[in-house]
Amino acid sequence: xxxxxxxxxxxxxxxxxxxxxxxxxxxxxxxxxxxxxxxxxxxxxxxxxxxxxxxxxxxxxxxxxxxxxxxxxxxxxxxxxxxxxxxxxxxxxxxxxxxxxxxxxxxxxxxxxxxxxxxxxxxxxxxxxxxxxxxxxxxxxxxxxxxxxxxxxxxxxxxxxxxxxxxxxxxxxxxxxxxxxxxxxxxxxxxxxxxxxxxxxxxxxxxxxx
Length: 210
Known about the structure:
This protein has helices at residues 16-22, 29-58, 63-71, 78-84, 89-97, 120-125, 127-130, 135-143, and strands at residues 113-118, 146-148, 161-163, 169-174, 181-183, 186-195, 198-203. With 210 residues, it is of the alpha+beta class. The chain has 2 domains: 16-68; 78-203, FAS1 domain (Roll), CATH 2.30.180.10. The chain has a 7-stranded mixed β-sheet with strand order 2-1-7-6-5-4-3.
């Protein structure tokens, strides 16, 4: 009976294949031929598993790190956010005519902007706005919804006022419920949508300045 002596080469990835091959050192040629396919398949599987594990760890990104990258997203400017929201067409049109749409794409020399934004339905339901004889006068009303500087909800102190882009003041007060903030007669219903160059406060009516 012939005895087969095999030289063992260790895999750099694991020792399991080496242990299995070592058992063949003193097998007969016939037994070796029968066992070899199974050993080779097992060894290849273990080596591939080792490669896969090594490749995964070398990538440098865990599942949580990948998901963090996906969730990070920069917000647009005030003008871009208003354009993306189909409810603010009237406001955006007035800002464009007033020459403010382009300004609301800038950071206002680092100061930012604040917009008090009524939806289209608020303009439609306001008889005073609808009765204005010219587009120019309507545009002036819309200018009164924009203020220079980033004014957060916490900055809105009852009894003070904000200078708007129409040159007039909008008085800040407390609503009857004792919790809501009113700016120029318009109650804030969304407390500050912060974007890249300022903040948008959604209001339930048009702002009136004095």
